[in-house]
């Protein structure tokens, strides 16, 4: 019953997002399903003859589960609050100053760095704004020599329920947990046209993470370091980010750019120095998923962790350490939608093996999707990474076996047939979403992926080993150099294939965007196709 439950839960979220009728509609659906269940079921477990044959018991239960899941979906979406903080909203367009804490890892670009910060409202001041602390009855003091017109050392933090995105200069460099003073013009995010010519809902994309405001090129003044302020879980997160930074620095010390950035992208999802042109080449050849830390990369890492811990000889300890390492790694790389989905599936698979239960990838996928939507239902509409990750894995599970059986002419050596079949299945299944998001179809992806994907595990392994050896004191750079050379050559092959494929005249086919309803019909067609393939297989 897991599949209809999750689908009904998602439909409840979609219904509430589209029509906005509140919890009443979900409750009504549940009441109808409950009535159908009651009138089709007796204490003896036999259907009542309310119609000529009545409803079979399993169908009556299905009605009840679907109604309950749909109701929970509408209720979950109805309680979502994405409204901006009114304390900040009334000062849009003004230059304001405030104290803040860097709440996520910095996103470093070629010409800028993006920080997401949590605002202390008690420190807020602006051109026509008095200290908000006065609203709480607290005394204030004017001091024009200070950065702010009021002093709030004796006031408790009153954090805004909205986050602010700072698009800042590359320097000064800030870390997760740093306390900073910020000054700049507060603005609202705006939607923009994507490459496919459709409007990208940037406002909702940010709002799903409670980011409601933007400040471009703010003045930043660090006031305290994360190393001295953070405690508990946040200290662990900061330590993991620091470890990742050290790893990347050690790789960069041996491997030149852009290869070191490619290795950082393969292992940690960091792509800061690849450059816009090379990133665009990866998109054209359908290989961008390896750079942004897709489920494929996470799967490789999870398998590697489990393989290494298996040498301990104790089965239970191996399972526990594998789960801990996967969780810590997920935190280290930023907990994006793709990472969370792949990590949940990996953790469920580890738990299944621990309990001696058979693995069911499709069931694991639906459980992961349900947990993610339960945590943040806005992912369903406004997170392209979640949509692509879920649908790519769904298509891989459903169609890859059928494609594999038809590729007898492709050798199985080095897992080539499996890679080719997986590439075709995934590209085929996410094609409608890719067309809507990008406005083009990558023709060469069916060639580039089989050539590059077998190299990815080796590039990740040698890149990680380069960083690990580089941490060794005194001799780190010397002993990591031979491994770094290998990782450089492997990454150079990946870059070479990417650039060659992207420069081919037939690399992409421009299609323009397609509507949501066209995509819906397209996927209904996929459903009919899957049913026919399954019937043919068992006939």
Automatic annotation (TrEMBL):
Localization, UniProt: Cell membrane
Signal sequence, renumbered to the chain: none
Domain ComEC/Rec2-related protein: 266-530
Transmembrane segments: 18-39, 59-79, 287-307, 319-352, 364-382, 388-407, 419-449, 455-476, 483-502, 508-529
Keywords: Cell membrane, Membrane, Transmembrane, Transmembrane helix
Major subcellular site: membrane
Domain DUF4131 span(s) in chain numbering: 21-216
InterPro entries assigned to the protein according to its UniProt record, in alphabetical order: ComEC_N, Competence_DNA_uptake, DUF4131
Membrane topology note: Multi-pass membrane protein
A GO cellular component annotation in the UniProt record: plasma membrane
NCBIfam families: ComEC_N-term
Name the UniProt record assigns to this protein: ComEC/Rec2-related protein domain-containing protein
Organism per entry: Candidatus Zambryskibacteria bacterium RIFCSPLOWO2_01_FULL_35_19
